[in-house]
Structures are given as C-alpha cells and as structure tokens.
Design brief:
globular, 4-stranded parallel beta sheet, 18 strands, 9-stranded mixed beta sheet, about 500 residues
C-alpha cells in the first residue's frame, strides 16, 4: 500500500483500489506479454524521410537517421552508411518529428498504467510529465520501461499533490501551516520526487514556505496557482508552470484583487466548516461571473508578458477545460476510443457526467469558448512559453489520443500548427533544460522519433497519421502499434476478475 511521505502512514488510494478490483491480474498481461517479435532494439537506419525541426519549422527532405542503442548517432543524406547489422526502415514519403510529450498527465497509476502506457506509445507520445502519484510506484514503472519489461514512455514525476486543509482527495499531502509546507518539500525530495506539485487550497503563507524550501532543496514547483495568491505572486516565488490557466484567467480580470480576497474568505470557511463548505468545483464556477464581467485584453497581454518574463510556463489543457464545461455533451464520447479505456475509467466518466453534467452552466461553457480560448490565442500572438498537456484520464481526455485533440484545440484557439507542435516537442525539452538531449532530431540526442505519413505543419491533425514510433531506440512499426492497441482492447474487454475479499 502506498505510504504518506509525511506521516509514513498508509494512504487510502480509492482510485488504485477500484482499478485493481475491476481489472485485477488481467491488466498485467499487457506489461508481461512478450513483444520481442513486434519491436526492434539495437541499430536502425531510417532512409528517405523528411526531417522536421520544430524550432525553426524547416523541413529537410531525403534524410537518413541512424539509431544505435537508444541514441541518434547520425542524421545525414542518402549516402549515409548503415552500421553493420542495422535494420533498414523505409522512410520514403514520411515526415520525422521528435517524440511527443504530454506535459500534464496522470498515467503512473498501478492497475491503469499497464494499459495507459502502451496506448500513449501507440499515439507517438514518448514522454509524460506525471502530475500526481506515489514515488515508489513511479520508480518501479521507470525501471520496467527502461529495462524493456514494459512498453511505455519516459516520464518525469511529482510525488503526492501538496494541498491545504481540508483534504479533497486520497493520497495528497495536507499542509496547514508553513512548517508543514517545509516538511512536505523535504519528505518529497527525500522520496525522490522530481518536482513538487502545489494545489488550489494552500494558504498564501504555506505556499510561500513551500516555494522557499523548494529553492533550498533545488527542486521545481508546478501545478495550480493556489486560490489565495495571484499568478504573478506564484511566478515571483518561482512556480515554474501553471496548469489549466489557473490564476491566469483571474489575473486577466480587472477585479482580480476582489476575486482573490473572496477566495481567501472561502478557504477560511472551509477550514472552520469543511462539512458544509461548497465544493472546489462550485467555487471555481462561482468565479466565472466576475472574471467574465471584468475581463480586459490589454490587462491580459500585460500579465502574460510579465509571467513569461518571470519564467512561468503555461499548460492550458484546453481539452479538459472543454470537457468540464460540457460534461453531458454526447459529442465528447468517442466510441471508437472507448475500447482502449480501462473499465474503471469508463464507469468513472459516466458517473461524473451524470452527476455534474446535467443542466451544465451555460456561462461556464461560454467562458471556455470565449475567454479561455482567447487567452491561449493571446499566448500564441505574444509567443508566451506554452506546453501541451491533456490532464488525462480526467473525463473525456482519452489517454494517448487526447494529446492530438489538445494540439488541434491549440490551433483552433489561434496557434499555428508549428507553435502547437513546439508545445509538445522542443518546448518540453526547454522546460526540462534538456535541449541537448531531446526536442529535435539530431546527432547525440535520445532516439524518440515519430514517423508521420503527412506533414503536420500543413495540418496539425496529421500528427495522428503515424507510420512508426521509436521510443528510446525501441522501434514500433505500424503493425506493432496496431498490435499494442489490439492487446489493450482485449484486456479491457476481458471479464473483470472477482476482487479478493
């Protein structure tokens, strides 16, 4: 059972428990099934592909890419020599892009990762920023993927979410004062978390203590901008990214100070009477009206420039914002993808849609359509540092497939296809200060490559037209990718084993 990093007490993990109960040992078939006949490791040469550089948007045709044991060792012309024993891949007519990153996902979950991981690989996602989990689980899965025992992406992971009182979900670290905030950072660093995820209910003093201790321990913080502080304050304190436009939408409103003050009062009410306090979702929906009434484009532009100058990255997650605003919309249900979704998630999505989607707030829908998408449009125009993330598997953000939806939503909001592609390739590399090893296809970089049958710079939806994926040097041709999805669907369709008593 997972252990709370602060108290060392077992954490109740309903999500994990339900998943295991529904799927049981059958899910492990995906991880344990031999894939040697489907995939190739070692030395490979791709001949005749057109290499796209997302940094500049340049396309260099008729390139040869040599991969040796997980690294790109050469990118050259047609006469590039093939190393001894190399497998040749016909890349003629294809476009090579770096492996895609989902920069906000929840995949490292026992009982779910076994199907979510291969579904991501089948969609060309070779990297994930894991936003919530238990570090011991993450370290085990990393070992399994790195060794080849399991098919999955590389990932960077937070440990438990760090949030205020009262707790809103199992598995989070509850912080009630600055001292507990500092201990939370120390415990997570000691447990080998790679960044600290902060959340909405932290009070301002605790958030500041967390940020200062994170600087001492040399670990980034990312996540929600707490309701008790502004986005500018969070960025000033060193928060490296904000998710879902948290803090940004309020900062684009002339009434921001009133909105934050009202949130602080609401937080105090939750602390004293959590049993009768409105939910966090209710509070977020209540903030829509004053943000809509005082939204100001000039103020928003100034805010975005300031956040960029302070080094804060934006992860809009437009797909999940759209879903939250229209949970009862049948158009969100993609039947062709449902077979790749674990049954537990199907049940959870259906329950949330029934519970929260009936009579959805029209103003919240319009807020997503007009203001949130408008803010992302301004981000594109101002070249604000931006990352593509899905928040899958929240309702109707389908693991793997959802990143392509997100890229299309970014373009629909006003970004160019090149800007959207950057948000899933070179921008994650820059965010991690890892541009020397990932983000483009070049000699010396890790061999995370996606071969497409059409040019994504002409139409961003072409990122779906995948011919082959190379993940850390492991080659999946189209037949192997299809086999992964067939196996995932088979496991999800299998009768659920009876949970142990």
């Amino acid at each position: 059972m997972p252990i709370d990093v602060l108290s060392r007490r077992p954490i109740r993990r309903e999500l994990v428990t339900v998943a295991r109960g529904l799927l049981g040992a059958a899910l492990l078939a995906v991880a344990c099934r031999p894939l040697d006949a489907q995939t190739v490791t070692g030395t490979v040469i791709i001949r005749g592909t057109s290499v796209i550089d997302p940094t500049t948007g340049s396309i260099t045709p008729n390139r040869s890419i040599v991969v040796v044991e997980g690294r790109i060792t050469a990118v050259g012309g047609p006469a590039t020599p093939a190393p001894t024993g190399a497998r040749a891949i016909d890349g003629r007519g294809s476009f090579a892009i770096p492996g895609l990153w989902d920069m906000h996902a929840h995949a490292v979950i026992p009982g779910l990762a076994e199907t979510i991981f291969p579904t991501n690989i089948a969609n060309g996602i070779t990297g994930i920023r894991e936003m919530f989990g238990v570090t011991t689980d993450a370290l085990k899965y990393r070992s399994d993927v790195t060794s080849g025992r399991m098919v999955g992406p590389r990932f960077v992971f937070a440990g438990n979410i760090v949030d205020g009182w009262p707790p809103t979900r199992p598995g989070q670290v509850v912080v009630r004062n600055p001292a507990e905030g500092r201990r939370a950072v120390d415990s997570l660093v000691d447990a080998r978390a790679e960044f600290i995820k902060v959340y909405s209910l932290l009070d301002s003093a605790s958030f500041d203590a967390i940020a200062r201790q994170a600087r001492v321990r040399k670990i980034p913080i990312a996540g929600h901008v707490p309701l008790s502080v502004s986005a500018v304050h969070a960025a000033t304190m060193g928060q490296k990214s904000t998710e879902h436009l948290e803090g940004v939408t309020a900062g684009c409103a002339a009434g921001e100070n009133d909105i934050v003050d009202a949130a602080v009062l609401w937080l105090r009410g939750r602390v004293t009477d959590s049993a009768n306090a409105p939910s966090l979702m209710s509070e977020m929906n209540r903030r829509v009206a004053p943000m809509t009434a005082t939204y100001d484009v000039a103020r928003c532009d100034a805010l975005l420039r300031q956040l960029a100058s302070l080094g804060m990255w934006q992860v809009p997650t437009l797909g999940v914002l759209r879903a939250v605003s229209r949970l009862s919309d049948p158009a969100l249900v993609r039947a062709e993808r449902t077979r790749y979704l674990p049954p537990m998630l199907q049940q959870m999505w259906s329950s949330m849609s029934a519970r929260m989607g009936t009579g959805a707030d029209t103003s919240r829908r319009n807020f997503h359509r007009d203001i949130e998408r408008g803010i992302v449009r301004r981000m594109g125009a101002l070249d604000v540092p931006l990352l593509a993330g899905t928040d899958s598997p929240n309702p109707f953000t389908y693991p793997g497939f959802g990143l392509h939806d997100e890229l299309e939503l970014l373009v629909d909001a006003g970004l160019t296809p090149l800007q959207a592609l950057r948000a899933a390739t070179v921008s994650p590399a820059a965010y991690f200060a890892a541009s020397d090893s990932m983000g483009t296809i070049a000699r010396g970089k890790v061999a995370d490559i996606v071969l497409l049958d059409a040019n994504p710079l002409l139409e961003i939806g072409n990122t779906r037209r995948i011919r082959a994926v190379i993940a850390n040097g492991r080659v999946f041709d189209r037949a192997a990718l299809d086999a992964l999805l067939v196996e995932v669907a088979r496991v999800n369709a299998a009768p659920s084993p009876v949970p142990p008593p």
